[in-house]
Amino acid sequence: MPFSLVFTQEAKGNLEELVREPGLAKRYKAVRKTPGFLETNPRHPSLQTHEYKSLTSKSGGKVFEAFAEQGTPAAYRVFWRYGPGKAQITIVAITPHP
Predict the structure, then answer these.
(1) Which residues contact 9 (CB under 8 A, 6 or more apart)?
(2) Which partner for 92 in 14, 31, 49, 79 could form a disulfide, CB atoms 3.0-4.6 Å apart?
(3) Three-state SS for 8?
(4) Alpha helices (H) in the chain, listed in sequence order
(5) CB atoms within 10 A of CB 57
(6) 78, 65 in Cβ contact below 8 A?
(7) DSSP 8-state code for residue 47
(8) Region 11-20 average pLDDT
(9) What is the pTM of this model?
(10) What is the 3-state secondary structure (H, E, C) of the chain?
(11) How far separated are the first and last CA of the chain, in Å rounded?
(12) Measured between alpha carbons, how far is 74 from 85 in angstroms, rounded to an integer?
């Protein structure tokens, strides 16, 4: 089942920073593939999606972490949750691994 994506203001800002900073171009290239995988299959093997237990959404729902990069210092992760509507995923943040 395909999903539509919603980005929080924080996630939009995270993406804009990746685009704006020339030194982060390689990171942006890796990160920009992740939403496509989330739209078609949030459990795609390359995302290594798992629940991020130390974070919950404001509505009390589960927040998940998906890998945008692997094997890289401070590899980028995409934090997301299901909703707010049916067949929607909200991208909460796009950050280096905490």
Answers:
(1) none
(2) 79
(3) coil
(4) 9-20, 25-31, 34-40
(5) 17
(6) yes
(7) G
(8) 93
(9) 0.88
(10) CCCEEEECHHHHHHHHHHHHCHHHHHHHHHHCCHHHHHHHCCCCHHHCCEEEEEEECCCCCEEEEEECCCCCCCCEEEEEEECCCCCEEEEEEEEECC
(11) 30
(12) 32
Given this model, what pLDDT does residue 61 score?
80
The tokens of 38 are what?
């989330």
Query: Over 80: is that where the pLDDT of 11 sits?
Result: yes
* pLDDT bucket at 91, cuts 50 / 70 / 90: very high
Torsion sign (Cα): 97, 4, 63, 41 = negative
pLDDT score, position 78 = 93
* Residue carrying the six token digits 């685009």: 19
Q: Which residue type occupies 41?
A: N
